[in-house]
Specification:
The protein has about 280 residues and is an alpha/beta fold. The protein has ten helices and 13 strands.
Length: about 280
């Protein structure tokens, strides 16, 4: 008899609480803003988040409470045989390890936590693949193995409009931030499995977009059919639409391209105006 599998992720995937349905659950991520707790999708939406950011509020990300994770698991297991939980990348947050510990507490064979090493739209894309696998009758453990076999495939290049929030988030020195702002540098950051690192400094956002598209072309050169190519942004929809048009034209790309908001956890550290091209391999059985 086929086991009934429920899939759990969090709002770092780009899915929201409104996307929940039978067998699919989204854990909302908490934020601390000026020492007050806000919950994404409940007491904090995108508009309020960027309003706080514009006002210079102190924003930090935190993990969901263990008690909330355990409560969710126990509720789901009243209806389903297994849970497959796919949180954001273990290299970007301790949430993955926390979920593994909670799963161990519940007991063997009930909760499987997969490390996709992805976040935002690449994680969303893989979750769409995962939900198809569930419909096809695969077990949680089988799907976990598929995810972790190909969990080194995410590549995202993020062009920042400002260095201000790298400093605020503790990821850039004050001196470099001051110099970069003075020179109006548009840095590009590489976000991949297990790493976040500087990739290139350009003088304009148009130069940054051209460079990112050229890097995407290198990745897609051999087997373009194996990949998803999508765009993410922080409160910069018009620029994201323009970037999509350039990708379609310059890469002759005819597959679907999603345009998504970069998750608020990322936006906390990079600020508004950022643009990203995200590439991830399609999951295959």
């Amino acid at each position: 008899m086929t086991k009934q599998v429920a899939v759990v992720t969090d709002t770092n995937s780009g899915f929201s609480l409104e996307d929940e349905r039978a067998g699919f659950y989204v854990l909302p991520m908490p934020f601390i803003i000026d020492e007050n707790e806000y919950i994404e999708g409940i007491t904090l939406d995108k508009e309020l988040f960027y309003k706080f950011m514009e006002e210079g509020r102190k924003i930090s990300t935190v993990q969901p409470p263990i008690a909330e994770i355990l409560k969710l698991y126990n509720r789901i297991l009243k209806e389903y045989d297994e849970i497959l939980h796919i949180p954001m990348s273990s290299s970007l947050s301790d949430t993955y390890q926390t979920c593994v510990s909670v799963a161990h507490h519940i007991g063997e064979g009930k909760v499987f936590v997969a490390d996709s090493k992805k976040i935002s739209v690449p994680l969303k894309r893989n979750l769409q693949d995962v939900l198809k696998f569930v419909e096809e009758g695969l077990t949680a453990e089988e799907i976990k193995d598929i995810i972790e076999k190909d969990n080194d495939s995410m590549t995202a290049y993020v062009a920042l409009d400002t260095l201000k929030y790298l400093k605020t988030g503790g990821r850039g020195s004050a001196a470099l931030t001051a110099i970069g702002t003075l020179l109006k540098i548009k840095p590009v950051v590489f976000l991949g499995p297990g790493k976040v690192e500087p990739a290139k400094n350009l003088r304009t956002m148009n130069q940054a977009k051209d460079w990112i598209i050229s890097k995407a072309a290198e990745i897609l050169n051999d087997n373009p059919d194996e990949y998803y190519v999508d765009i993410a942004h922080t409160n910069s929809l018009d620029e994201a639409i323009s970037l999509k048009e350039q990708i379609v034209e310059k890469l002759n790309w005819h597959d679907e391209i999603l345009i998504e908001d970069l998750t608020l956890s990322i936006a906390t550290h990079i600020g508004p105006g950022a643009l990203a091209v995200a590439i991830a391999k399609k999951l295959k059985r």
